[in-house]
Design goal:
Elements (H helix, E strand, L loop, with lengths): L4 H9 L6 H16 L6 H17 L3 E6 L2 E6 L12 H24 L34 E2 L11 E2 H12 L3 E4 L6 H11 L10 H24 L14 H14 L4 E6 L4 H7 L5 H8 L18 E6 L5 E6 L9 H15 L8 E8 H6 L1 H8 L12 E6 L8 H4 L16 E5 L3 H18 L3 E6 L17 H9 L3 H12 L4 H24 L34 H12 L9 H16 L5 H14 L4 E5 L14 E2 L6 E2 L12 E5 L5 H13 L4 E5 L10 H8 L2 H5 L6 E5 L14 H6 L7 E3 L4 H13 L6 E5 L13 H5 L6 E2 L10 E5 L3 H11 L5 E6 L1 E3 L3 H10 L5 E9 L5 H9 L7 E7 L10 H15 L4
Parallel strand pairs: 6-8, 6-9, 9-10, 10-12, 11-12, 13-16, 13-17, 17-18, 18-20, 19-20, 22-23, 22-25, 25-26
Antiparallel strand pairs: 1-2, 3-4, 5-11, 7-8, 14-15, 19-24, 21-23
Helix pairs in contact: 1-4, 3-4, 4-5, 7-8, 7-17, 7-18, 8-15, 10-18, 11-22, 13-22, 19-20, 19-21, 21-26, 22-23
Length: 947
């Protein structure tokens, strides 16, 4: 075959890694190599040496002679031919063939997982088009040819294609299938590749390590079988089929502890949760058995089902290293625990000064259908590299039982793998056969190494199955008959691994039987203890960072809390918040704002909402409590009232006045969040669980946007104390008020929060003065207990000329649950009770109409219901014949349905409570500003009518 120089160049162009700009360079290198092999890099020497050797093999009529440290090809002498090197056309063909093998190697790196043996219930495909030899212009005739590029997979140069394929299949097509070619960062991608192709990755485990894995499998299976026989048809969401999760977690914990981590926090749904509780977190078997018997501690609330409960435990590895384990409480809303765990981890890292993210490690265990189906998974991973939310990388484990409740994968996702979402974030993905616990343990170790190296998330897709239906009372063959025929006869992971270890001579069948008998004896003994002395496990809520705090009594909620601040300190903080450094140039439009704040603090009057809130944060960090504020655009504030961070107008450099108040102060952290409600609020809630001494504040861009976090609000914030004895002092700032901005920018859904209120579980306020927000925020860290605070925060009131406070209201008062009418009318004929912004519309109308016989009273705290203060007000204005409740919200929304019965029960027989406000709506507000203004005018006028 003859080839011209043009053909040679064209051949090289066919390969993506041999671009036009590289071809001339390679040719130049080859010419240097021919002149002096040492003039080129060693890797190129190997390459060209392989080309020369291949040329000699294909051209036996030529001889090889030694030329220093490389072979030289010399033609058999002839009258017309001098000694030869490979000609350009032959050289091109040899490079062509080597390049094709390189493409084959790369294809296995990319597509090898599609041939991997990762499904316990299905044999892998024998071949796929992307990996057939014909796709690379290779045939079986090439299998015994030798190739220099074998060194790319760790083989000696000159290994055959057959040997190369064998190595590739071993690496990429075994019981671990890896996806990493999608990763854009070449450093990360090559690290994963090098680890996989390193012989040490698949180094054999020691016999004692194998026995330990086997013991964890025995524990997992024996526990489930025991429950299955003793608690027939009771739901437990068995781990059976995914038993390998237990030795995986055990290996992960041991490795983390050996690397000097102090804490590992786990989040998971209900599948396998009881097994994790007992066999990983060491929750006593007898406590679980008591819960199955219905013995739950509900002394302080409603409690929860056993497979939603969390736990914590100080774990000690076989080598003596200790680590604190926590399993987060979680409702049936599957993945919503994810951001909560991340927030807990971030708080623990902050408290432990874990700047390198190596002391506290998050682990999230997902269901396959939920991982790709629940948006909160995406929202949580999206936070993973953001400064305000990153935790140094999360180990994600998908417990992939290949069916969601009764739904097959082709009906539950649009992707090939359940894990494909992770590709959007360039995360490595390890698919592991759940029947190979050794492979799972190796994948777990590599995942931890990856996290330690790059501080990024990583995913392990543990492909397994579930032995029973969604719960033990289901009949799974209704919807998956073929799958469950296989499962019915499929050996368990424990049985398969026992057979393997017996074959290897690690232990005998008799020893295996003894191990199983030992764990069954322990289970039986614990069962007998539970029956003889039924006792639920105790949840300790006030250990660790919660020491010194306590549960609140109902009476304490209405006892005034000292939140005042010395005037001198207040003025000093106010000045420092209003004066940037000398060489700092604020935005021209902010100069006036800062000057106004400075004037307000110096005069001690006219202090607006932005200053009141700022003084709260400033005094809190001044006194030693950190503040963490996050939300969409909260740094500046949606309505441009906060400006907690200033940016130099010339350099763009940020300056945070709150962190420059005095030496030894606590830290103020503020973060503009991603465009997420559920993920970010879940994160902040989790943070507040782990660090009760930091004021944690989440602000919605508009109060309506809290809709997107409703699961976090319902299942965690409002009910976690009653269900799980988990308290939180988180603050929600939800901009609320009717200004004609339409249905989605008016209401923070006050009615929903009030509907959730019971057992003094949280505080719901609709505040109207800067001093009130100051004291409400400070109260959160001054009490000896923690409760969530939900604030209907203002929009138009931020700059309302009447919404101001005097400095004396900060220094001489505490929070006021009720604000009496400042005019204190004598013997009024009517009392208008209201809450929030509508108050200013009412007082304005009263002033313009010169009405003097109507009192206007603000209920600033709607829950806990301020009963004694209301009784005092009603006694003061006992002459009032009419009592009205006035609100901006439609009648079926707002506070009306909440206050109606409570307020009516306090009235005299001669008094009746009337509603003044909008009629019932389906949406919170109208879309027309003109119609809004008309409605607002009418409801205010009706409130002052004679009835």
């Amino acid at each position: 075959m003859q080839a011209t120089a043009k053909n040679h160049t064209q051949a090289l162009k066919n390969y993506s890694y041999l671009k036009q700009e590289n071809i001339e360079y390679i040719e130049e290198l080859y010419q240097k190599y021919l002149s002096d092999s040492n003039s080129v890099d060693e890797s190129w020497q190997y390459f060209f040496e392989g080309v020369d050797l291949a040329f000699a093999k294909e051209n036996p009529e030529q001889n090889i002679k030694s030329n220093g440290n490389k072979p030289e090809l010399v033609a058999v002498p002839s009258p017309t031919q001098s000694p030869l090197k490979p000609t350009a056309d032959v050289h091109a063909l040899l490079i062509h063939q080597e390049a094709k093998v390189v493409e084959l190697i790369q294809a296995y790196r990319t597509f090898g997982h599609l041939l991997s043996d990762i499904n316990p219930l299905e044999a892998p495909p024998k071949t796929i088009t992307q990996l057939e030899l014909s796709s690379f212009e290779l045939t079986d005739n090439d299998l015994d040819r030798k190739y220099t590029v074998a060194t790319q997979v760790g083989l000696p140069k000159g290994s055959t294609l057959r040997e190369i394929l064998s190595k590739l299949k071993q690496i990429y097509c075994g019981t671990i299938g890896v996806e990493f070619s999608h990763i854009g960062n070449s450093q990360v991608r090559l690290w994963v590749q090098n680890q996989l192709e390193n012989q040490n990755f698949r180094a054999k485990l020691k016999p004692e390590q194998k026995i330990h894995i086997y013991e964890k499998l025995i524990q997992a299976e024996a526990f489930e079988r025991f429950l299955h026989t003793r608690y027939v048809a009771q739901k437990r969401f068995s781990i059976e089929g995914g038993d390998t999760l237990i030795p995986m977690l055990d290996a992960l914990i041991c490795d983390v502890a050996e690397n000097s981590a102090s804490d590992l926090v786990i989040g998971m749904a209900h599948r396998g949760r009881l097994n994790v509780l007992t066999n990983i977190l060491n929750k006593k078997y007898e406590h679980v058995f008591s819960e199955f018997d219905g013995h739950l501690d509900v002394s302080a609330g409603e409690g929860d089902v056993k497979y939603h409960l969390g736990y914590s435990y100080d774990f000690q590895t076989p080598q003596g290293k200790k680590i604190h384990l926590s399993l987060g409480f979680n409702p049936s809303h599957l993945e919503f625990v994810n951001p909560v765990v991340e927030g807990m981890v971030r708080a623990k890292q902050f408290l432990k000064l874990d700047r390198e993210f190596n002391k506290v490690i998050p682990v999230l265990i997902h269901g396959d259908a939920a991982f790709c189906g629940q948006g909160v998974v995406y929202e949580t991973i999206q936070l993973s590299l953001l400064d305000g939310y990153k935790t140094g990388g999360t180990i994600h484990i998908i417990a992939n039982n290949q069916v969601g409740f009764t739904t097959n994968p082709n009906d539950s996702r649009s992707t090939y793998y359940a894990s494909d979402l992770a590709k959007a974030f360039d995360l490595p993905i390890f698919h592991v056969n759940g029947d190979d616990p050794e492979a799972a343990v190796l994948a777990t170790k590599l995942a931890l190494q990856f996290r330690s190296t790059f501080h990024r998330d990583i995913v392990i897709d543990l492909v397994c199955y579930r032995k029973y239906g969604h719960n033990e009372g289901d009949e799974p063959s209704f919807t998956q008959p073929l799958m469950y025929k296989k499962i019915k006869t499929h050996p368990t992971p424990h049985e398969l691994y026992a057979k393997k270890l017996i074959t290897e001579g690690v232990f005998s069948k008799e020893q295996s039987t003894l191990m199983l008998g030992s764990i069954n004896d322990k289970l039986t003994a614990s069962y007998n203890v539970a029956k003889a002395n039924a006792k639920a496990s105790e949840i300790s809520a006030f250990e660790g960072n919660w020491k010194g705090l306590r549960k609140a009594s109902e009476e304490e909620f209405l006892i005034p809390v000292i939140t005042t601040v010395d005037e001198k300190i207040l003025r000093e903080i106010g000045k420092k918040l209003s004066q940037p450094p000398t060489l700092f140039t604020p935005h021209p439009k902010l100069v006036r704002l800062l000057e106004q704040r400075l004037a307000q603090i110096e005069k001690g009057e006219g202090m607006d909402w932005g200053l009141g809130e700022a003084l709260a944060y400033g005094t809190i960090v001044w006194e030693g409590n950190p503040v963490r504020l996050s939300g969409q655009d909260c740094e500046r504030g949606t309505f441009s009232h906060r400006h907690s961070v200033l940016y130099d107008y010339n350099t763009g450099k940020p300056f945070t006045p709150f962190n420059n108040l005095r030496e030894g102060q606590a830290k103020f952290s503020v973060y503009n969040s991603s465009l997420s409600e559920a993920g970010v609020l879940g994160f902040e809630y989790g943070y507040s669980l782990a660090d009760p001494h930091t004021l944690v504040v989440w602000e919605a861009q508009f109060g309506d946007f809290a809709n997107g976090a409703q699961v976090i609000i319902d299942q965690f914030l409002a009910s976690s104390e009653s269900k799980w004895k988990r308290m939180s002092g988180i603050v929600l700032l939800l901009p609320h008020g009717y200004e004609g901005q339409g249905p989605e920018h008016s209401s923070a859904r006050l009615e929903r929060f009030l509907q959730l209120c019971a057992r003094h579980n949280m505080q719901v306020c609709n505040l109207t003065t800067p001093a009130q927000i100051f004291h409400a925020l400070r109260r959160q860290v001054k009490r000896e207990f923690r409760k969530p605070l939900v604030v209907m925060s203002p929009k138009s009131l931020l700059r309302h000329p009447e919404v101001v406070s005097k400095i004396s209201e900060f220094t001489d008062r505490s929070f006021q649950e009720i604000l009496d009418d400042p005019l204190s009318p004598q013997n009024p004929r009517k009392i208008l009770f209201c809450s929030g912004k509508i108050y200013y519309d009412l007082v304005t109308y009263r002033a313009t109409q010169k009405i003097q016989d109507i009192a206007i009273v603000r209920i600033e705290q709607l829950y806990p219901w301020p009963l004694p203060y209301l009784q005092k007000i009603l006694k003061k204005y006992s002459s009032a014949k009419y009592i009205d409740w006035v609100q901006e919200e439609p009648k079926n929304m707002g506070a009306w349905n909440f206050v109606h019965e409570r307020l009516s029960s306090l009235l005299q027989p001669s008094q009746a409570l009337h509603y003044r406000g909008r009629e019932e709506f389906a949406a919170p507000a109208v879309g027309s500003s003109k119609i809004h203004e008309k409605q607002q005018k009418n409801l205010v006028e009706e409130a002052f009518s004679n009835v």
